[in-house]
Design goal:
Length: 154
């Protein structure tokens, strides 16, 4: 893809340890994405971005919670990922393509909770789904995932 270099350069200005994969969802036959069929007609391709959670978080840091009771380090990485996917969408739109940064959400698929982002990352061969998580060979499940849907020729 002509944008892959631009995408990698952009992501590398935002973080050091990341995963990047691309998949043409129009070519995938998966019951896990059937519920998104109408959306995928307009945005048939996906860019999967994973930001690795820090490998060593001290016990003190891992215990710090925000006002919602969520882990602060996790929230910082999630904010970083939202910024990356939003800016990546803008980059693609600037190049003349449609792009949609998908929000974070979990859904029920086959009686387990799995996010759309993890499904897309799996389809982009970035890891395998086990139980309720996407597991990467490099860092296991210590990755926050984001997805940008587009009509760009990936």
């Amino acid at each position: 893809m002509q944008f892959e270099g631009k995408i990698r350069n952009f992501i590398e200005t935002e973080c050091e340890d990341y995963f990047l994969g691309m998949v043409d969802l129009s070519l995938v036959e998966s019951s896990a994405i059937q519920q998104y069929e109408s959306l995928l007609t307009e945005y048939p391709r996906a860019i999967s971005i994973g930001v690795t959670l820090p490998p060593t978080i001290s016990d003190e840091l891992s215990e710090i919670k925000d006002s919602d009771g969520k882990n602060t380090v996790y929230n910082m990485v999630q904010c970083q990922l939202k910024s990356i996917t939003s800016n990546l969408s803008s980059l693609l739109e600037h190049e003349g393509y449609q792009a949609l940064s998908m929000p974070t959400a979990k859904g029920i698929i086959g009686m387990t909770y799995i996010s759309f982002h993890e499904i897309v990352a799996n389809l982009a061969n970035l890891g395998r789904i086990e139980k309720n998580h996407l597991i990467t060979p490099e860092v296991g499940s210590r990755v926050n995932w984001g997805t940008v849907l587009t009509n760009a020729p990936l």
